[in-house]
Amino acid sequence: MNLKESQTPHGAALNCKGWVQEAALRMLLNNLDPAVAERPEDLIVYGGRGKAARNKEALELIIKALKNLEDDETLLIQSGKPVGILPTHKDAPRVLISNSQLVPKWATQQHFDELEDKGLMMYGQMTAGSWIYIGSQGIVQGTYETYAALAKKHFDGNLKGKLNVTAGLGGMGGAQPLAITMNEGVCLAADVEEWRIQKRLETRYIDEIAYNIDEAIDKALQYKKEEKAISIGVVCNAVELLQRLIDRNITPDTLTDQTSAHDPLIGYFPEGLTVAEAADLRDKNPEEYTKRSYTTMAKHVEQMLELQKRGAITFDYGNNLRGRALEVGVKNAFDFPGFVPAYVRPLFCEGKGPFRWAALSGDPQDIYETDKVILELFPENESLKRWITMAQERIAFQGLPARICWLGQGEREKAGLAFNKLVAEGKVKAPIVIGRDHLDTGSVASPNRETEAMLDGSDAVADWPILNALVNTAGGASWVSLHHGGGVGIGYSIHAGMVIVADGTEDAAKRLKRVLHNDPAMGVIRHADAGYDIAKDTLRKHRLGLD
Ligand code: NAD
After folding, report:
1. 3-state class (DSSP) for residue 353
2. Distance (Å) from CA 269 to ligand 1 centroid
3. Range list of H helices, 265-379
4. What is the CATH number of domain 1-134+343-547?
5. What pLDDT, on the 0 to 100 scale, is given for residue 172?
6. Mean pLDDT calculated for residue range 504-510
7. Residue 308 marked in a binding site
8. Is 236 a catalytic residue?
């Protein structure tokens, strides 16, 4: 395939037989745009080895199939490979995708790797294999939303004059300083690797770099006093920063961590080693390296527990740091909560989650038009207003211009219908495609993350994402996907994706109304069933239950 064929088409001219097929084609190619994907040459979009298509041959076949697909046909994708086109009808999804599914007894990383080596499977991650990844805006917004929820729960709805301490400024963790300053707080974050902080300075995700821990602490305290929203990255190990805070009797307002603790050998740095020394030891004596990592992680969690005792609002940010510490004997490691049960679940109970959309025209102005609509529709939502305004200033578009914001039950359908109207009235130059992450209210079963510590113990029940995919198919989403292993790895999660196109037609309006009502409703129903009061209230308010 030549470069021209693999570039995302822009503009109002069709390459396919309808806008829904065209949207699937553009979003597939957008996932693989070098400005969006981590390793487009290997078809890897993000998240380790999350791919958009199984191999180059499969990609070419998908492109060809989408170009020829009729308005009453559905293309079937099995782990990144097109396998058939079957007759359906105009309101059915144009594409149905199943990625990385294994019978539970065989659902191990090892078995998956064997199948992948034989060319029989592909790891779809979440939005990689379901063709709706939009670059780093997603993680910035998710982190912003977590801190906004924390600010609402513990403070006055923002982080003004609050000191927020964390560590790990990598691919995902690098979003923390920007998310914190967007919530008006001060961020003090440690990372061992200087280049990581430099990279965040270049993209303006962080404001300052420091090399001396005490000077960094002093500056952060000064900014806190002056209520300035500034972020500082300090080049040191997380445990060195936390130890200085403890020794100087300084208690941060909030405390978390996003070092790659899930991987003690490749991801986490033990204390007392420079980056070069660490690389050397990792190479020469991986057992010793891993042992030292575990020792540091145990100390790290003990320091967090100490600061929690002194009053810091402390939470785990999905990196399994608590789990590692527990493995080496820190019995009370789970005394501080994970971010989902602490902050995200109450949002899920209102059907809230990461709603996102992209302008198929490729014109950023189309997104600014949709931003206006969002601000007009939800004027009372201060945090949403702050996010949209800051995102316009600070987030660079990657590939097709896109936007993300968290909307709940009732809100998503309103937004979808308003976008469809924009298309119908010609206020945007081409249709808008609407989707979401699989990390959402009703679309995922993942006991170590999204469904950790459910009230009724139903963490591992995976009927919910399957019902979600089925109801979105019945409702007429444009493409629907069901994946396994996203976020936390093979064997650990089942989750569903959904994308729907607003092409300005009456038919699209009917589909949008159904799908954007039913999709978050699955989350409200799931959480009400598990016994959450907020979800029960939302269920009653929107009449989603049986009575
Ligand atoms: P990454 O590997 O790109 O970055 C990790 C960073 O941590 C690196 O910059 C590294 O230098 C730094 N680091 C490692 N050990 C350190 C130490 N002891 N002290 C200071 N710095 C240290 O990883 P990432 O993509 O940013 O993800 C980070 C972790 O957060 C992962 O474990 C990931 O699974 C988790 N995460 C979870 C969620 C979620 O649950 N929603 C979201 C984002 C990230």
Report:
1. strand
2. 10
3. 275-284, 286-309, 321-327, 339, 345-349, 364-377
4. 3.40.1770.10
5. 85
6. 98
7. no
8. no
